[in-house]
Every structure is written in structure tokens, then in C-alpha cells.
Amino acid sequence: MEPTRRSKATPARPVAVHDLGEVLRVLDSDPVASCMIAARVQEFGLTARAGLGELWCRGNPTDSLCFSGANLVPLRGDAGALRAFADRAMRWPRVCSSVVGRQELTLPLWDLLASRWGPARDLRADQPLLALGEPALARPDAAVRRVRPDEIDRYLNAAIAMFIEEVGIDPRAGDGGRGYRRRIRGLIESGRAWARFEDGAVIYKAEIGSLSRRTGQIQGVWVHPDFRGTGVGTAGTATVANAVVATGRTASLYVNDYNRIARRAYSRVGFRQIATFATVLVD
């Protein structure tokens, strides 16, 4: 009998419910980078629910872990694990709109997926992941506050403008904006949308997009074009970061390396780089 040339690689599998303890330990070992996924797992556990996605591992979650949902997020794993994650992701029609996470995991995973999924709409290969665990260095803006539910329409206009500017597509495409409006309404109702209003219009906005037990990830930072360069963004982000830190959490965000203006503003707030993310926008 001829020897087998290559043994079959261990495939990736959905993480079992009884693996919850190990998964939480993995997420807790990298609390800033894993904030998006930790927030989901801490709230919903590992039980599969429509629209929430699922976690995969290859072997043991302590060795390899990847989230699959609206985003594909590699959290831990060697080259073999990334290959297994790519194989599983390509087994069914693609559901994620982006691949995002630590640069050293995301870019190799995308290399494995690109041949099947086609060229990326945008590849952001260098995104400093920033963190702040103490009160901001910059003076906060007392006019930046939580958005009230009755202010959703005015806030939504700014959120749409930010999304188009940052992502390059209109979040209202496809369903007329109903899904995006639900997302924004949820952030407002949970007290995680912040803004400064002038004459009824939003001139600064940001959200705490993910909130785990240890980290609050700030996203959607936007300044009205007429107020850029005036310090509104720095002071507003200091306010939101302080709100996160006041809860005993670390404030975090990630930013495109080429956005020098934003990077300088975040540095003035007190954020420091702790890792590097990468994002592949597929849709």
C-alpha cells in the first residue's frame, strides 16, 4: 500500500456551547482587539441566533478562534487554522461584508479568500488600534452629550454623511435605510450615541459601537465640514472617551494610518497605539 502523501487537515468547526469558558478566557486575554466579539459573547453566549453569527475554532478555542457573521473576524490561530477558516468560509455563499481584525491575522486570511471572493472593494491594510485607560489629556467638550430618541432624524443625517464619507457606499442602499435606522436607533436608546448640536444640526458625532465588560470601542467619529480644524473633533472625542473610562473600561478605536488629521487629534486626546488592525471591505 502506498503511503498517503498528505493527511487531511483538521477542519474548522462551530465552537460548542460547553466551550464558553475557554472562549471567554481567549477574549479576555486580548480585551481591546476582541471587543467587538467579546461584547456579543458576553451578552448572548454561544447559542446560535439568526443574524448574530457564530464562532469557529480548529481543535481548541484556546489555539484558534474566528467569528463569522456580518464581519469575518480572525481572533487567534496559526497558518493551518487560517486555512481551515478560509475553507469553511468558502463552503457557503458569502454573508460577511468585511474581513477585519489584527493585521497579522486578517491579511493572511484575506489572501486565502481573495481567489474565491474576488477583488476587495477597499483594502485598508494599516489601521492603528488605539487605547486609552485614563481620563483624556484634552479638554472635553461639555456640549457633547448623549443623543435623545426624539433627535434620531437629525442625528441620522449626520450618521449617513459619515458612513458615505468613510465607507464609500450609502447605508440606505438595498432596504431604503431601514436596517441602518434600526442600528442607529438601538445605539441612541442604549445611550451610546453622542453628539454636539448647533442650531439643530449635528456638528460632531460618535458612537460607542461595541461595549464589552472591559472595553468600549468608539466608532463613527465625524465632524461637520464647516467645523473641521477647529478642535471640535478632539474635544468631542475626549468627552466620549471619558464616558467610557468613567465606567472602569478602556476606551478604544482604530483609524486609517493615512488619516493624519484624525491620528493627531486622537493623540492629543491621549490615545496610544497598542496593535494594528486591517480591514478588507468586500461589499
UniProtKB/TrEMBL annotation:
<dbReference type="GO" id="GO:0016746">
    <property type="term" value="F:acyltransferase activity"/>
</dbReference>
<keyword id="KW-0808">Transferase</keyword>
<keyword id="KW-0012">Acyltransferase</keyword>
<dbReference type="InterPro" id="IPR016181">
    <property type="entry name" value="Acyl_CoA_acyltransferase"/>
</dbReference>
<dbReference type="InterPro" id="IPR013653">
    <property type="entry name" value="GCN5-like_dom"/>
</dbReference>
<dbReference type="Pfam" id="PF13312">
    <property type="entry name" value="DUF4081"/>
</dbReference>
<feature type="domain" description="N-acetyltransferase">
    <location>
        <begin position="142"/>
        <end position="283"/>
    </location>
</feature>
<dbReference type="InterPro" id="IPR016794">
    <property type="entry name" value="UCP21603_acetyltransf"/>
</dbReference>
<protein>
    <submittedName>
        <fullName>GNAT family N-acetyltransferase</fullName>
        <ecNumber>2.3.1.-</ecNumber>
    </submittedName>
</protein>
<dbReference type="InterPro" id="IPR025289">
    <property type="entry name" value="DUF4081"/>
</dbReference>
<dbReference type="InterPro" id="IPR000182">
    <property type="entry name" value="GNAT_dom"/>
</dbReference>
<dbReference type="Pfam" id="PF08445">
    <property type="entry name" value="FR47"/>
</dbReference>
